[in-house]
Design brief:
The protein is of the alpha/beta class and about 260 residues long. It is about 50% helix and about 15% strand. The protein has eleven helices and ten strands. The strands form two sheets. Strands 2-1-3-4-5-8-9-10 form an eight-stranded mixed sheet, with helices on both faces. It has a two-stranded antiparallel ribbon with strand order 6-7. Strand 3, helix 4 and strand 4 form a beta-alpha-beta unit. This is Hydroxyethylthiazole kinase.
C-alpha cells in the first residue's frame, strides 16, 4: 500500500489530460501531496511525456475528437510501459457524444482506476440512476454493487466519490466516511481526486492505494472544514494547505473506514 510519505519521497510524475475547467486545481492537488504534475495538450508529444511519467490521468470532461485521440494515444503508450491509467467519465450520461467518446477510449486502453460520482459509475454499470450533469443526482442503486460492477467490467479499481467514498476491486469494497459538504460546492474536487488517485497508484497499484487516495482528500477536507464555516471558497484554499501538511499519522488517526 502506498503512503503519503512514499509519494513525497518518490515524487512520481503524473501526466494529465485535463478538461478546460480544472487543470490548475488538479495540478495543485498533485503537487501539494508531493507528486509532480504534467498537463498534456499536444498528441505529438504523447510518447515522450508518457515515457517520463509514472501514471496517466484521463479526464473526459472536454469531449472533442482531439482529446479522444490524445487519450487513446497516451493510454496505449501507458499500457505498453506498464504505468497506471486512471479515467474519469465526466457526466457520461449527459450526452451521446460523451458516451461514444468514452467507448472509443475504453476499446483501446486498459484502465487501472475509474473514478466518478454515483451517477457516472451507475451509467457504466448499467444501473438506473437520475444523474444531473456533473452532479451525482439520485437513485436507488446500491453503491457497493455499482462500484463492484465497474471494477469487474474494466478489471480495475473503482472509486465512487461522494458523501461516502466507495472503493472496490470487484470483490472487496471499502467505504471512506471522512469528508466535508463544501466539496460539493467547489467545482473540480472530483478532478483533484483523479490526480491524487494517479499519484497513489503510481507508487503502488492496488486497492489499498485507491483507498488511500480517498482518505487523503476526504481527511484534508474534514480538517479544512473545521476553520472555514460559511466561507466555502476559503475552504478549498485551506484544503490545498492541508494537503501540503498532511501526514500518514494524521491519516491513520482520523480515517473512518468500513
Amino acid at each position: 500500500m502506498a503512503t503519503i510519505k512514499q509519494i513525497r519521497d518518490q515524487s512520481p510524475i503524473i501526466l494529465n489530460i485535463s478538461n478546460m475547467v480544472t487543470p490548475q486545481h488538479v495540478a495543485d492537488a498533485i503537487n501539494f501531496i508531493g507528486a509532480s504534475p504534467i498537463m498534456f495538450d499536444d498528441i505529438k508529444e504523447a510518447a515522450d511525456l508518457v515515457n517520463i511519467s509514472n501514471a496517466l490521468v484521463i479526464n473526459m470532461g472536454s469531449s472533442n475528437d482531439t482529446d479522444v485521440e490524445k487519450s487513446i494515444a497516451a493510454g496505449k503508450y501507458a499500457n505498453q510501459k506498464g504505468i497506471p491509467v486512471v479515467i474519469d467519465p465526466v457526466a457520461i450520461g449527459a450526452s451521446q457524444l460523451r458516451q461514444d467518446n468514452f467507448a472509443k477510449v475504453a476499446k483501446e486502453v486498459k484502465f487501472d482506476g475509474v473514478r466518478g460520482n454515483a451517477g457516472e459509475l451507475a451509467f457504466l454499470a448499467d444501473i438506473e440512476w437520475n444523474a444531473q450533469g456533473i452532479d451525482a443526482g439520485e437513485g436507488d442503486g446500491d453503491l457497493h454493487e455499482i462500484a463492484k460492477a465497474v471494477a469487474q467490467k474494466f478489471n480495475c479499481v473503482s472509486l465512487l466519490s461522494g458523501v461516502v467514498d466507495v472503493i472496490s476491486d470487484g470483490q472487496k469494497v471499502v467505504e471512506v466516511k471522512n469528508g466535508h459538504h463544501y466539496f460539493a460546492v467547489n467545482v473540480g474536487c472530483g478532478d483533484m481526486l483523479d490526480g491524487i488517485l494517479g499519484a497513489c497508484l503510481a507508487v503502488d497499484n492496488s486497492l489499498d492505494s485507491a483507498v488511500l487516495a480517498a482518505r487523503i482528500l476526504s481527511i484534508a477536507g474534514e480538517i479544512a472544514g473545521e476553520t472555514t464555516e460559511n466561507i466555502p471558497y476559503t475552504f478549498l484554499n485551506t484544503v490545498f494547505d492541508t494537503l501540503y501538511q498532511l501526514s500518514d499519522a494524521q491519516i491513520n488517526d482520523l480515517q473512518k473506514l468500513e
